[in-house]
Amino acid sequence: MNLLKYIVLLFLFFLICHCKASKTIGGGEANLNLNTKQLLRENAKKTPDFKTLQSRLKITYAQDGKEQSYTVNLRAKKDEVLWISAMFSVVKALITPEKVSFYNKLDNTYFEGDYKYLSDLLGTELDFQKVQNLLLGDPIFNLNANTYDVSVTNDAYMLQPKQQRELFEILFLLDPVHFKIKSQQVSQPKELRHLQIDYLTYQEVEKQTLPENIKVIATEADNKTVIDLEFKGITLNEDLNFPYKIPSGFKEIKL
Asked: Record's InterPro entries (predicted)?
């Protein structure tokens, strides 16, 4: 048996033994009669509660007519760290509340800095909490019943601030069955920027409601970036480590 076949069989064995059952959340009975306070209470109940999370994550990135897909290993320690590693650790990334860092063995480069790179990529100001919430299907802005109005449109709840901010506009769509976010959108009309995060499907893992398929669409003037995320084989609350060390001799890049 050659080395490649051995690696593939070993990888499949790992998946079979370690992936716990999950199921896509389908239809159910819609409740479109909640007021803002009731809706936000139901949404808050669905906030994922775990210590650690691990998943295979398929990332499809499309920009300027070009598309690339990667499958990586995602690990998270809630509120502390997000860790991503491609196969054979060719590319690794570490995101903490303090910084964003990644390195690439294909060209011997690394990046280490603040959240400006991710903010510029998606066209809105980000921090660790917002990135984590984006991945978990939680709102990237705090939702308060005193400052938001709710209405019903296209069989979904629509939440908007009673008074939109001066520099950007916010909109949330919530599912009337499981009350998780269907879409969250931020627009900056003066800069011709729009960020839209659509949660196409959710899955239930160990009684937790977590995203299964996310589509992120970021536009600025005539430029458009689309990122599709697919979470597979999620496991929760296992003992995980987050090995990360930038190899010596790598060249720092500025983004």
From this structure: DUF4292 (IPR025634)
Contact 234, 212 (CB under 8 A): no
CATH among 1.20.1640.10, 3.90.1150.10, 2.50.20.10, 3.40.50.170 for 34-245: 2.50.20.10
Q: Which two tokens stand for residue 80?
A: 């502390």
- pLDDT tens-digit profile of 77-123? 999 999 999 988 899 999 999 999 999 999 999 999 988 877 876 77
Q: What is the mean pLDDT of residues 228-247?
A: 97
What 3-state class would DSSP assign to 212? strand
Measure the CA–CA gap between 142 and 90, rounded to whole angstroms.
36
- In DSSP terms, which residues pair with 128 in a beta bridge? none
Q: Position of tokens 């910084």?
A: 99
Residue 191's pLDDT band (cuts 50, 70, 90) = confident
- Asked if pLDDT for residue 4 goes beyond 50, the answer is no
Residue with tokens 């690439």: 104
Phi, psi at 140, each rounded to 5°? -80, -10
For 134-187, the DSSP string reads HHHT--SS---TTTEEEEEETTEEEEEESS--SS-EEEEEE-TTT--EEEEEEE
Tokens 């800095």 map to which residue?
Answer: 113
Query: Which residues, other chains included, contact 99 with Cβ-Cβ below 8 Å and sequence gap of 6+?
Result: 112, 113, 114
Q: Tell me the residue type at 69.
A: S
Residue 18 has what pLDDT?
40
Q: State the pLDDT at residue 124.
A: 74
Tokens 């603040």, located at residue? 114
Q: Tell me the H-state helices in the chain.
A: 3-18, 36-45, 116-122, 128-136
110 beta partners:
103, 252
